[in-house]
Design goal:
This protein has 88 residues and is mainly alpha-helical. It has one domain. It contains four helices and no strands. The longest helix is centred in the middle third of the chain and has 22 residues. 17% of the residues are buried.
Length: 88
């Protein structure tokens, strides 16, 4: 299964390359790709601690890639509600 090891190394390489990026968006996309590949590889091989870790990293990357696209109103955040709460 040499191809499987190549896939695993590719995922690790993407995570490493992502950490060298100065641009946050490029970092997130490369990190997400590497984490997804590494999650798949570690799951297939049965290395569960690393599969879970990379899976969580992938979820965090998706969160930070999606969050800026949402408006405060679309996620239920309204200043009037916060202001009313703070003023009592």
């Amino acid at each position: 299964m040499v191809w499987l090891e190549i896939v695993g190394w590719a995922g690790s390489l993407l995570v490493i390359v992502s950490l060298t990026q100065a641009r946050v968006l490029r970092f997130r996309w490369l990190n997400l790709a590497g984490a997804v590949i590494a999650t798949a590889y570690n799951t297939i091989v049965g290395i569960w601690p690393f599969a879970v870790m990379n899976g969580v990293i992938a979820v965090i990357d998706v969160y930070w890639l999606v969050l800026p696209t949402l408006s405060p109103e679309s996620i239920g955040f309204h200043w009037t509600t916060i202001t009313a709460f703070v003023r009592g």
